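Second attempt. The first submission of GFA family protein had a stray character pasted in from the spreadsheet, which I only caught after the job came back as garbage. Lesson logged: always re-copy from the clean sequence file. Corrected sequence (151 aa) follows.
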Amino acid sequence: MMPQNPTFPTARGGCQCGAIRFTVSEGPAKAGLCHCRMCQRATGNAFAPLFEVPGARVEWQGETPREWASSNISVRGFCPTCGTPLYLRTGDTIEIMAGCFAPDFPYQPCDQGGIEAKVGWLDQLSHLPAHDTYPDLIAQVVSNQAPEERG
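This time the job returned cleanly.
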């Protein structure tokens, strides 16, 4: 079993368009999944993969994230240019969306919360056929996304 708050290396990431970049300093963190209905709606997805750290360990570069108070205790940060959901902030804690990190970041969830709202079809994913992105489609794509950060 993975420890609840292992030490992670320095991590980098940002939004799709590159207007916002961040660095999270090395240290203990909690990597988890949230299935609650608020996270589903905030991410437009079945769950939110979150990386929880003290806000003081996050350094922002570029544009300042916009925030929206999604509840009386938390705000959600996003890029005002491209709309990428970046984080959930509650008090001095920030939970960064795992998909915003560089692809080589060793994110490994250690728990799941909000399980009362977990969508049933997630349990079937390992049984579905899997394939790479369609080569014919990729050959036509010209990405407007910023280059990926590297750890």
